[in-house]
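Hey, I'm writing a tutorial for new members on how sequence and structure tokens pair up, and I'd like a real worked example in the thread rather than a made-up one. If someone can provide the structure for the chain below, I'll link this post from the tutorial.
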Amino acid sequence: MRYFDLSHFAILKVSGEDAHSFINAQFTCDLEELSRRDWLFAAWCLPNGRVISTFILFRKDQDYYLVLPAMLRDRFIKRLTMFVLRSAVNITDCSDDITLLGLAGGNASSVIEALQADDTVTVLALWDHKARYILCCPNDKVSDVMQHLSDHCEEGDRSSWSLLDIETGIPWIINATSEMYLPQMLNLDLFAGLSYRKGCYPGQEVIARLHYRGQLKKRLFLGRADSSITPGPGDRIETGEHHYAGDVIDADRSPDGGIRFLAVIDLAYADDGQLYIRGDEAIPVTISSIDYPQQ
């Protein structure tokens, strides 16, 4: 088992009498899904449907919390605050008050049981092929939680946590990939991150039209490559004939050798036997569909 420092993520709180209706009117997910799930992975979009940021959303008491890449925090808060207007809503950056930790490994559930006895620590069980959790710890509890984790686990690094997200198919959007993709291209419709039944939100008309007309041309895929070079978000993927086929979303090295990555690929080229990441040299890659949990 390993525990991880997740300080490269920020955590925001949306609270107030109108928080529920405000969130439902801004983000792609349907909050009614939280009645049967501990958390949702969702997106916030521009009016043209392009995703500004993806995030994990959960509820604690009457407040809602968003976990998103820290590099997008200031931009996210500034833009979201513009839409509050006269609503009874407060948006608070809790990143200095709540510490985010990760836990992964075969016996992680037994370690979690002791932490769940303290209801001030929020435990989010991620869907994964292995037991994996995000812990949201108030800072006055961090020392005790860290002691408990270090007694039972080894410390993991950020790269290893990123690899677990990649292999699970979690598409984190960062500065390099913000405003590039529609949510269906990131597979949000495959794991309850995108609702076609609720009311309007930014980009809803474009997103719904793409769905009902069956015009989706790109999807998120898991990729592999035997290479010592790790591509970056936004790196171009091409066919052997140099046709543009897609872009890398995230990539990291695998302990088994080579790299693993997530990429948005044009469906016309998804079955192409020869795809390459283009950079200083062409890196041959293979891609596969992502096995998400049943919804």
